[in-house]
Amino acid sequence: MGIPETILYTDGAEADKIYRIGYMCKPPPAADSITMANALIQSIPAVAGITDPVEKEKVITLAYRLSRALLGNTLADQFQYPKGLNIGTLFLFRNKQRMQRLFRRWFKRGGVRSENFSQLLQISVYDEGGLSYKMPDHVYASKSSPW
User: Fold this and answer.
1) Are 84 and 65 within 8 A, CB to CB?
2) Helix-strand-coil percent breakdown of the chain, rounded to 5?
3) How far lies 58's CA from each of 47, 63, 65, 133, in Å?
4) Other C-beta atoms lying within 10 Å of the C-beta of residue 58
5) Cα–Cα distance measured from residue 46 to residue 52, given in angstroms and rounded to the nearest whole number
6) Does the structure show a pLDDT above 90 at 38?
7) Of 127 and 29, which is predicted with more confidence?
8) Rounded to an integer, what distance in angstroms lies between the CA atom of residue 87 and that of residue 60?
9) Cα–Cα distances in Å, from 23 out to 17, 28, 72?
10) Residue 146 banded pLDDT, cuts 50, 70, 90
11) Cβ(62)–Cβ(73) below 8 Å
12) Quick check: 84 and 64 in contact, CB under 8 A?
């Protein structure tokens, strides 16, 4: 769906090889990328409608930990993410999600999937102007024309 077959991989080993080649070819994140990556994480509580300061901090900390675990320490350091222990982060997060689904099934409340879907719909709401699909004309936002 929109991805040329020439860049699709056939198995895990090929995916790993393509990832390593792509990683070697890309430059380290520039100041704009670092600012944007951190701004996106910092905006999660506002987008999710979380107003409690303690809960905001928990969500941001979790987002940084999950991002660091997914990106790896080298790239996370380049993005200037806070340092922290991320051993087992993904395992613990997945198990917590599984336990929440199981717990909700036992008590026959709304499922995690329906709650996640509702939250995604709320986040995706955009203003009356609609979405613009214009693309920037330069890789660096500071050098790009207004769009």
Assistant:
1) yes
2) 65, 0, 35
3) 15, 9, 11, 34
4) 13
5) 10
6) yes
7) 29
8) 18
9) 10, 9, 12
10) confident
11) no
12) yes
> What confidence tens digit (pLDDT) does each residue in 76-131 have?
999 999 987 777 777 777 777 778 777 777 766 554 455 665 666 565 555 555 55
SS (H, E, C) 54-111: HHHHHHHHHHHHHHHHHHCHHHHHHCCCCCCCCCCHHHHHHHHHHHHHHHHHHCCCCC
Place of tokens 């986040």: 123
Q: What is the DSSP letter of 127?
A: -
CA distance 49 to 54: 14
Cα separation of 60 and 39, whole Å? 11
Given its phi and psi angles, is residue 87 left (phi above 0), alpha (psi -120 to 50 degrees) or beta? beta
Q: How far, in Å, CA of 42 to CA of 63, rounded?
A: 9
Whole-model pTM over 0.85: no
**Domain map of the chain by residue range?**
29-87, 88-119
> Two tokens at 64?
């940084």
